[in-house]
Design brief:
- It contains two helices and two strands.
- It has a two-stranded antiparallel sheet with strand order 1-2.
- Helices cover about 65% and strands about 10% of the residues.
Length: about 70
């Protein structure tokens, strides 16, 4: 996510705490938050996809998703 968008998210959060947001600003804030969360989740997934577990015997295996 672009740095300017993160700054805008923070500016809207600060304005919300002090004086409140207009309906248009609330929509913008929700859209920016969704974009931020999507990017965060994608980055976390990519990071976890690269995790390898090394066993005491020296063998290595990829991290697998936990079954629900």
């Amino acid at each position: 996510m672009e740095h300017e968008k993160i700054l805008r998210i923070n500016a809207l959060a600060a304005k919300q705490r002090t004086e409140g947001l207009t309906d248009e600003e609330k929509q913008e804030q929700a859209a920016l938050r969704q974009e931020y969360l999507r990017d965060f989740r994608e980055g976390m997934k990519n990071m976890l996809d690269g995790v390898v577990i090394q066993r005491p015997d020296g063998s290595r295996e990829k991290l697998t998703p936990k079954e629900k």
